[in-house]
Specification:
Blueprint (H helix, E strand, L loop, with lengths): L1 E4 L4 E3 H6 L1 H10 L4 E3 L15 H11 L6 H5 E2 L2 E2 L3 H7 L7 H13 L2 H13 L6 H12 L3 H8 L9 H18 L15 H7 L2 H7 L3 H14 L2 H15 L6 E2 L8 H13 L4 E6 L2 H5 L5 E2 H5 L18 H8 E7 L6 H15 L6 E3 L1
Helix pairs in contact: 3-5, 6-7, 6-8, 7-8, 7-10, 10-11, 13-15, 14-15
Bound molecules: adenosine-5'-triphosphate.
Adenosine-5'-triphosphate binds next to helix 15.
Length: about 375
């Protein structure tokens, strides 16, 4: 095979092999740089796995008379974005079934940790043609033990994790194994990468508690309550929900005589937010009022407002702690019977939230 660059300089296949790292660099920068002359025999030997150039070398042995990279990338009229996909389309790569079967089989005798280690090892050895396909087919086995460990961690036998959360935690574990071996999931282009922020949320007991609702049940409650809202309640509901959805922020004061449906409105708003997998913190100034709110707490205990308040008090919240992360992830705070506390309590919470969110108090709503 002869390769020729745009300036007409010709390289023999042997040179191509010997200077492979140089060509690989060119391929990355501008793949159209190397032109392949048609009808030339291709002889390659002694190459190692080096990503896309490796697949190109396989193709140079198989595709007859290509005149451009697009020629090589086109199989049955379809142009693929990578040489690897072309190899796959031509059936030159295994379908990875053996690896999928191996992981499933290992599941009978090995723990989840062992399976994740096995998967990470397969990744590091570049054994799989399409690791993302193996991952999609085996992630449930690879996730084995992660839910149990989270339940132990939070001492909650009822704790449940969504599919995305479970996948994310599993990927995070695999990434940890790879990092210990000087590799990373980022080396595998089509493999999903764990969302580290969401992993730290999953490991935050307070956030997990606030997300641990049965979404279909809450959604049913929400549908029922929303239909029952009066016009006045619905207007308030829509105003607050649009402020949340558009991330506008806002402080809403809702006034009404006893029995006019304020608690009913709080319940509807809470169900609407929780049914979308978001967080609402329900607090009330008195213990009795807090019992009427779903997942309610007293404001003092939720935000650790000091009992002895002065005009420049702060809540005792560690900015790097779990409670601060929970507050940052919260879509709305509902504070029932807010005027029942001294204004210094508002101001302390306002100051603390500004400090934590580094913005004005945007998420406080009171009665
Ligand atoms: N839109 C509605 N549809 C059906 N029932 C409602 C509606 N709004 C309120 N209610 C019912 O009316 C009763 C009183 O409402 P709610 O407890 O929400 O009032 P409140 O304003 O919170 O009262 P208080 O200030 O005394 O706590 C409750 O039984 C509640 O379920």
């Amino acid at each position: 095979m002869i390769l020729m660059d745009e300036e007409g300089t010709q390289y023999h296949a042997r040179v191509f092999n010997q200077n492979f790292s140089r060509f690989r660099h060119l391929l990355k920068e501008d793949e159209s740089y190397i032109v392949i002359k048609p009808n030339m025999a291709v002889v390659t030997n002694g190459f190692s796995y080096t990503g896309e150039p490796y697949f190109l070398r396989i193709l140079l042995n198989k595709v007859k008379g290509p005149t451009s990279f697009d020629d090589i990338r086109t199989v049955n009229g379809q142009t693929h974005s990578s040489f690897r996909d072309v190899c796959y389309a031509l059936g030159l790569l295994d379908d990875d079934k053996e690896y999928i079967d191996a992981i499933k089989e290992a599941n009978h005798s090995g723990s989840g940790f062992y399976l994740r280690f096995l998967f990470a090892t397969l990744l590091m050895c570049n054994s799989m043609s399409k690791p993302e396909v193996v991952w999609e087919n085996t992630w449930e086995y690879l996730a084995d033990g992660i839910l149990y460990r989270q339940r132990q961690r939070f001492k909650s036998a009822e704790l449940s994790l969504g599919v995305d959360e479970l996948k994310n935690l599993t990927l995070f574990e695999i990434q940890q194994i790879l990092l210990r071996n000087n590799s990373t999931l980022k080396n595998f282009k089509n493999m999903p990468y764990p969302d580290v922020e969401s992993v730290s949320s999953s490991n935050n007991r307070l956030i997990t508690e606030e997300l641990d609702y049965d979404v279909p049940v809450i959604k049913n409650d929400y549908d029922r309550m929303f239909l029952a809202l009066t016009n006045e309640q619905r207007n308030i509901f829509l105003n607050i929900m649009s402020a949340i959805q558009e991330n506008k922020g806002g402080v809403f004061f809702v006034y009404g005589y006893g029995g006019t449906g304020k608690t009913f409105l709080w319940k509807t708003i809470s169900a609407a937010i929780r049914s979308e997998g978001n967080i609402v913190l329900n607090v009330a100034s008195s213990g009795i009022a807090s019992l009427l709110l779903p997942g309610g707490r007293t404001t003092h205990s939720r935000f650790i407002i000091p009992f002895e308040l002065i005009e420049d008090s702060f809540c005792n919240i560690n900015p790097d702690g779990e409670l601060a992360s929970l507050i940052r992830k919260t879509s709305l705070i509902i504070w029932d019977e807010a005027p029942m506390v001294h204004k210094h309590a508002f101001e302390a919470l306002d100051r603390t939230l500004k400090d934590l969110l580094r913005s004005s108090l945007r998420k406080l709503k009171g009665l």
